[in-house]
Specification:
The chain is of the alpha+beta class and 442 residues long. It is built from 14 helices and eleven strands. Its EC number is 5.2.1.8.
Length: 442
C-alpha cells in the first residue's frame, strides 16, 4: 500500500491511496473459504459448494468490503501519523469505473485542512465586564416580598390596588378554564388595573389577551396554555372573581429569620439584608460572567481572521447529515454554521495554546459540588462522601451528561483565562440598570 498527498493550497489537499492485490487477497480468500463452509446453495451439500461458485456469488462483495475497510484504516492512520488537522471527513473523489481485477487499485480523497492562525485576546477596545450589585431598592423590595409571602391573608369585600385576587379565566371557544390568583401589578398598563379596582366577589371582568401582560409567560400561566398557543394570541376572555384578599406583612422577627435560614443564622434586619444582598450578588455574578463570556466569544469570532475551505465543507455537508442536501441547501447550512465553526477552531486553539485540560477527577469533583448544592436546596446540608460518589457515578454513566459537565468546566477555565488576559473594563451597576443596558428592558 502506498499513500501520497498533494496540497492544492493551504486549506485543501488530495490524498491518493494505492492498494496492491497482496494487501487484501489473503483476507478475501479466507473469508470466501469460510463462506464455502457454511454456504447453503440448492443442489450442493453444506461445505461442498465449488469455490468457483462461491467466488462468483460472493467474491465481488467481499472484495469491495475488505478494500473499503483497508481504505478507512489506512486513511485514519495516515492522518494521525502526519498530524493533519482536518475539517469534516475525507471525501472520496468520484471514479467512473473501477477495475476490481487490477493488480493495483487507486483511490483519491479530498481533504479540508484547518487553517493556521493566531488568537489575540488583548484587543484595542476594552470589553465591558459587569459587576452587578444589589442596591437598596432591590433589597427592600425583596424584604417586602418575603414579608408578603409569610404574611397573613385578610379577606376583602372589594378589590384594591394591593389585593390578591383569585378567580377563573374562561373562553369557551378555546376551551380555556383556569383558576389562578393574581395581583394587579403584573398587568400591562393602567387600563386593566382600573377594570379591577372596586370589583367584588362574583363580578365578571372581560379582558383582551393581546397586550394583557408584558411577559408572555404570565399569560401562559394565567390561561394554562403552551408557548405556541400564546404567541400572538388575540382573543376575549372573562375573569370571574371568587376571592379577594390582602396580605398583612409578616413581622421581621427571629421566628421569620429562623424559618428562612435556620435557627440563629440571621438575628437582625441588617443581617437579613446582608444575606439577601450576598445571595443575590452570587446569582448576578453568574449572569455577568455569562455575558462577559459571550462578549469575548463575539469579539474573538469577529477579530480573529482566517480563511476556511468553504467549497470543501459545503460539499461535505451534502452527505454528512441524516438527510442528503443539494448544493444550495448545503451552502445555506454552511452560512448558518460558519460562525459556530470558527469559534470551535478558536476555542480549540486557546485550549491547546494555554494547556487547558479537564481530567476525570475535575468532572467528578464538579459533579459532587453540583449535587451538594441541589441537595442543600431541599434541606440536606451534610450528605456523606459515599452518597455523593454514588449519585455522581450514576450521573456520569450518562455520556451526554458527562460531556455537558466537561463543557461547563472548559467554559469556566476559558472564563478565568479571559479575566486574566483579555482587555476589559469593569462597570458597576444595579441589576435593574444592567437589564436595561444589556437587554433594553425597562
Amino acid at each position: 500500500m502506498n499513500i501520497t498527498r498533494e496540497n492544492v493550497d493551504a486549506l485543501n489537499a488530495v490524498v491518493k491511496v494505492d492498494i496492491a492485490k497482496e494487501d487484501y487477497s489473503a483476507k478475501v480468500e479466507k473469508i470466501l473459504t469460510d463462506y464455502r463452509k457454511t454456504a447453503n446453495i440448492p443442489g450442493f451439500r453444506k461445505g461442498q459448494v465449488p469455490m468457483g461458485m462461491v467466488k462468483k456469488q460472493y467474491g465481488k462483495a467481499v472484495l469491495v468490503d475488505e478494500v473499503n475497510k483497508l481504505l478507512q484504516d489506512a486513511l485514519n492512520k495516515y492522518l494521525t501519523e502526519e498530524k493533519l488537522d482536518v475539517l469534516g471527513q475525507p471525501l472520496p473523489k468520484p471514479q467512473d469505473t473501477i477495475n476490481w481485477d487490477a493488480d493495483t487499485l487507486s483511490f483519491e480523497f479530498e481533504l479540508g485542512l484547518a487553517p493556521e492562525f493566531e488568537v489575540t485576546l488583548k484587543g484595542k477596545e476594552a470589553i465591558t465586564q459587569y459587576n452587578i450589585v444589589a442596591d437598596d431598592k432591590m433589597i427592600n423590595e425583596q424584604v417586602e416580598r418575603i414579608q408578603k409571602q409569610y404574611g397573613k391573608l385578610i379577606s376583602q369585600s372589594v378589590v384594591e390596588k394591593e389585593s390578591e385576587i383569585t378567580g377563573v379565566f374562561k373562553n369557551e371557544e378555546r376551551e380555556i378554564e383556569n383558576k389562578v390568583t393574581l395581583t394587579l401589578d403584573k398587568f400591562k398598563g393602567k387600563a386593566t388595573e382600573k377594570l379591577f379596582i372596586g370589583a367584588k366577589t362574583g363580578d365578571v371582568i372581560t379582558l383582551q389577551t393581546k397586550g394583557l401582560y408584558d411577559d408572555e409567560h404570565e399569560l401562559m400561566h394565567a390561561l394554562k396554555l403552551g408557548h405556541d398557543d400564546i404567541h400572538g394570541l388575540d382573543i376575549e376572555v372573562t375573569f370571574t372573581i371568587s376571592e379577594i384578599n390582602t396580605r398583612e406583612l409578616a413581622d421581621l422577627d427571629q421566628d421569620l429569620f429562623d424559618k428562612l435560614f435556620g435557627k440563629d443564622v440571621v438575628t437582625s434586619v441588617t443581617e437579613l439584608k446582608d444575606k439577601i444582598k450576598e445571595d443575590a450578588e452570587k446569582q448576578f455574578a453568574q449572569q455577568a460572567d455569562q455575558k462577559f463570556l459571550n462578549d469575548v466569544t463575539e469579539y474573538l469570532v469577529e477579530n480573529t481572521k482566517f480563511d476556511l475551505p468553504a467549497s470543501f465543507l459545503q460539499k461535505w455537508m451534502q452527505t454528512a447529515g441524516e438527510q442528503p442536501l443539494d448544493s444550495e441547501q448545503a451552502k445555506e447550512e454552511y452560512e448558518k454554521s460558519e460562525k459556530s465553526l470558527r469559534y470551535q477552531l478558536i476555542e480549540g486553539k486557546l485550549i491547546t495554546d494555554n494547556n487547558i485540560q479537564i481530567t476525570m477527577d475535575d468532572i467528578k469533583n464538579h459533579s459532587r459540588e453540583m449535587i451538594k448544592a441541589q441537595m442543600a436546596q431541599f434541606g440536606q446540608m451534610n450528605p456523606s462522601d459515599e452518597e455523593l460518589d454514588n449519585i455522581a457515578a450514576r450521573i456520569l454513566s450518562n455520556q451526554d451528561e458527562a460531556r455537558r459537565i466537561s463543557e461547563q468546566l472548559v467554559s469556566q477555565k476559558l472564563l478565568s483565562l479571559y479575566k486574566e488576559k483579555a482587555n476589559f473594563k469593569v462597570k458597576e451597576l444595579s441589576y435593574e440598570n444592567f437589564v436595561k443596558e444589556v437587554y433594553g428592558h425597562k
